[in-house]
């Protein structure tokens, strides 16, 4: 007779999750501190942090922009009144290379440039001072009107200071050896133009108050 072989599969052992947790709990777990105790030397552990440097441009408020426009216009008025008073009173000025410089030999083209730029500088100072004064007198709750007046004032100031800088450049080109005039007049021109650019950017970026 032929033998019949019956293949019987072994029963599957079903393990519960509790048995798995017990098996894991039975394994020894080493903490980080215990591992470092067995190390014969100390390992320097440093944390690398990204130092994010973010440049933030200082912005001026509308009140500061109006004050800057009024102060620069007032400085021109004070200078013009001071020189006019000296000329009217015929006050002698001490002989000094700074207070009484030697007359420059300007060409006819340079004289025309100086006169035109200086007159334009004076004329643009008028709307600058007027709009800055009105803007400072307006109450704070009229933020839109104050911003508009500040923008008109600072644009007028920028054009006026540009013309002033051009006239200063003409004088420097006529006498490049006068170091004191280059430092004083050139420094003031750079200061005025820089303040105007900062004020314009502050109004465009910062908006109304």
Provide a brief overview of the structure:
The protein is an all-alpha fold and 209 residues long.
How would you portray this structure in words?
With 209 residues, the protein is mainly alpha-helical. It has a domain at 62-206. It has six helices and no strands. Helix 4 (108-137) runs antiparallel to helix 5.
- What's the number of helices? 6
Helix content: 55-70%
Largest sheet: none
Radius of gyration: 40 Å
Secondary-structure content class: mainly alpha
Note the overall shape.
globular
Strand residue percentage: under 5%
Keywords: Membrane, Transmembrane, Transmembrane helix
Transmembrane segments: 59-86, 150-173, 179-205
Q: How is the secondary structure organized here?
A:
Blueprint lengths: L16 H10 L5 H7 L23 H28 L18 H30 L5 H32 L4 H28 L3
Helix pairs in contact: 3-4, 3-5, 3-6, 4-5, 5-6
Which tags fit this structure?
209 residues, mainly alpha, 6 helices, membrane, transmembrane helix, transmembrane
């Amino acid at each position: 007779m032929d033998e019949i072989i019956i293949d019987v599969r072994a029963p599957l052992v079903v393990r519960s999750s509790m048995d798995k947790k017990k098996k894991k709990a039975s394994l020894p777990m080493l903490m980080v501190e215990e591992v470092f105790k067995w190390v014969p030397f100390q390992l320097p552990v440093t944390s690398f942090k990204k130092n994010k440097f973010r440049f933030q441009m200082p912005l001026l408020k509308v009140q500061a922009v109006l004050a800057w426009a009024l102060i620069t216009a007032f400085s021109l008025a004070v200078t013009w009144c001071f020189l006019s008073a000296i000329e009217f009173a015929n006050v002698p000025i001490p002989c000094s290379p700074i207070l009484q410089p030697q007359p420059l030999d300007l060409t006819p083209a340079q004289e025309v440039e100086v006169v035109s730029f200086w007159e334009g500088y004076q004329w643009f100072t008028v709307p600058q001072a007027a709009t800055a004064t009105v803007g400072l007198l307006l109450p704070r709750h009229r933020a839109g009107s104050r911003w508009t007046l500040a923008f008109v004032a600072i644009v007028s100031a920028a054009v006026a200071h540009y013309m002033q800088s051009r006239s200063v450049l003409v004088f420097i080109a006529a006498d490049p050896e006068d170091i004191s005039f280059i430092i004083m007049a050139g420094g003031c021109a750079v200061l005025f133009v820089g303040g105007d650019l900062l004020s314009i950017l502050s109004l465009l970026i910062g908006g109304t108050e």
